[in-house]
Amino acid sequence: MDNSKRSVVVTGFGPFGEHTINASWIAVQELKKLGLGSEVDLHVSEVPVEYQTVQSLVPSLWKKHHPLLIVHVGVSGMATTVTLEKCGRNHGYKGLDNSSFCPDTQCCIVGGPDCINSVIDMESVCKRVSASGLGVVVSVSKDAGRYLCDFTYYTSLYLSHGRSAFVHVPPLGKPYSGEDLGRALQAIIQEMLELMDQAEEKIHCQQHFH
């Protein structure tokens, strides 16, 4: 294994409700075909729409791959753009999952903060990707919806001290194809990595001068 390579994990969700084919997993599989360049080891994983599975799977992905960044992708029936989520929320989980379960506490992490922001500046990512002429509209949101998407994001943000991202995609064909969504994810994640690199460089420079 080449240790100079950085590892990035990207997850999509399995089917639920009327989403018998989940656009998020299709998009992630398209991204896998495209890759993130030779410097990045890309690992993808399909996440079942179940709270309890998320609680064990997310930590295991961090342990197994030690990623620089983990990006979760989910579908939103209300989305018409590719949406970058700024934060995950701890409370308000009342919706039942695929095994008709919801957490008794209705929260992700008992005693955790109400809201955790990603370390990535989603507005910056949005601006940069929008300026690149990708042909896919990208927007930013502060509410990931209090279902498995939000639950997964919060769990990941909590474990990674903010080194996570969440992207909502519209259902397939409304208006984008799986290939479009894969290209959009590639561009978005490359910008995220670029921003993380710049932040790292700033920190090193500051350390150097003090």
Q: Could you spell the SSE succession in H and E letters?
A: EHEHEEEEHEHEH
Could you tell me the radius of gyration in angstroms? Answer: 17 Å
Judged by helices, strands and strand pairing, the structural class is: alpha/beta
Write down the domain tally.
1
Quote the distance from N terminus to C terminus: 36 Å
Strand order of the largest sheet: 2-1-3-8-4-7
CATH class descriptor: Alpha Beta
Total number of strands: 8
For the record, the CATH architecture stands as 3-Layer(aba) Sandwich
How much strand content do the residues show? 15-25%
> Which stretches of 5+ consecutive residues score pLDDT under 50?
none
CATH-defined superfamily:
Peptidase C15, pyroglutamyl peptidase I-like
CATH-defined topology: Aminopeptidase
Q: Percent of residues in helical segments? A: 25-40%
Largest sheet: 6 strands, mixed
Number of helices: 5
Rounded average pLDDT: 94
Morphology = globular
Description:
With 210 residues, this protein is of the alpha/beta class. The protein has one domain: Peptidase C15, pyroglutamyl peptidase I-like (Aminopeptidase, 3-Layer(aba) Sandwich), CATH 3.40.630.20. 39% of the residues lie in helices and 20% in strands. The strands form 2 sheets. The protein has a 6-stranded mixed β-sheet, sandwiched between helices. Strand 1, helix 1 and strand 2 form a beta-alpha-beta unit. The longest helix has 32 residues. The relative contact order is 0.21.
